[in-house]
Amino acid sequence: MQLQTHEHDQDHHHGLAHDLATLDAALLKRRRALAWMAGVTASAGGLTLFGCGGSAEETTDTSSTTSGTTTTGGTTTTTTTTTTGSCSVIPTETNGPYPADGTTSLNALALSGIVRSDVRASFGSSTTVASGVPLTVTLTLVNTNNSCASLAGYAIYIWHCNQAGQYSLYSSGVTGENYLRGVQATDSSGQVTFTTIFPACYSGRWPHIHFEVYPSLATATSVSHVLKTSQIAMLKSVCDTVYASSGYSASVSNLAQISLATDNVFSDGATLETPTITGSVASGYALALTVGISV
């Protein structure tokens, strides 16, 4: 049984940079309010709100929010849409039994070739390519202590199971593989994008992707330097579609026996860990999630 932990970040002295950022945000909010009133006078058009959404342990908020509920697979989730400038610290989760991050003797982070964007193939002595429905994973790292500013130059390590629910380096039959693992540095927009495959649903867990955040590529060598460990919860509607395709047959029955409410990681709420996913089995899927951390 995996244990779940949550991080409660402490307040910090922000300094001049934060004060200036807050002032800029306040001025921007005032300009938006004036523009909104002008728009109402001119027409009955509505507003579109953007943000990284959700309620959580720590929130930076410089603008308004709207809330609603959605029901997926029998589970009702309250969601919050927030304007730019509002974001929340993503929950800390277990790295699970298959991280290969130096928690045990296995450490993929120390291998030459682990820094890459396409994680579908093994590297080194094996070049086996993991089969499955293509999936692009884009994570945007933001600082909840600085008006959700993008965090460039940080490193993000992702890993997940293959189409059969196996983890490279650990599971019987794939101990000689290191596919579906990779590290990248965030760009000037705080983003990393990985090319991978849609993970299976194995017995006892909701379909998910693991990730860890490090201060830089230079420090992304073992879990001793990690800033944040969390997981991404896959969408049930997309899982149902993907698992009906070739190669995922075991995932159908496994998914039927689990829910977000009964999962030992996501049962206390997965709003901040639930991404947007678009696409199709034929063309592949694109996943996007904003990851808020406090630095």
Number of strands: 13
N-end to C-end Cα span: 31 Å
* Topology order in helix (H) and strand (E) letters: HEEEEEEEEEEEHHEE
Q: Nearest-angstrom radius of gyration?
A: 20 Å
**Global shape:** globular
Beta-strand percent range: 25-35%
Please state the structural category.
alpha+beta
Oligomer status = single chain
The low-pLDDT segments are 1-58, 61-84
Largest sheet: 5 strands, mixed
Portion of residues within helices: 10-25%
> Mean pLDDT across all residues, rounded?
80
Q: Helix segment count?
A: 3
Keywords:
single chain, 295 residues, alpha+beta, five-stranded mixed β-sheet, four-stranded antiparallel β-sheet, 3 helices, globular, disordered N terminus
Describe it.
The protein is of the alpha+beta class and 295 residues long. It has 3 helices and 13 strands, in the order H-E-E-E-E-E-E-E-E-E-E-E-H-H-E-E. It has helices at residues 15-42, 236-243, 249-256, and strands spanning 59-60, 65-72, 75-82, 87-88, 134-143, 149-150, 155-159, 181-185, 191-197, 208-214, 228-233, 276-280, 284-293. Strand 2 (65-72) and strand 3 form a beta hairpin.
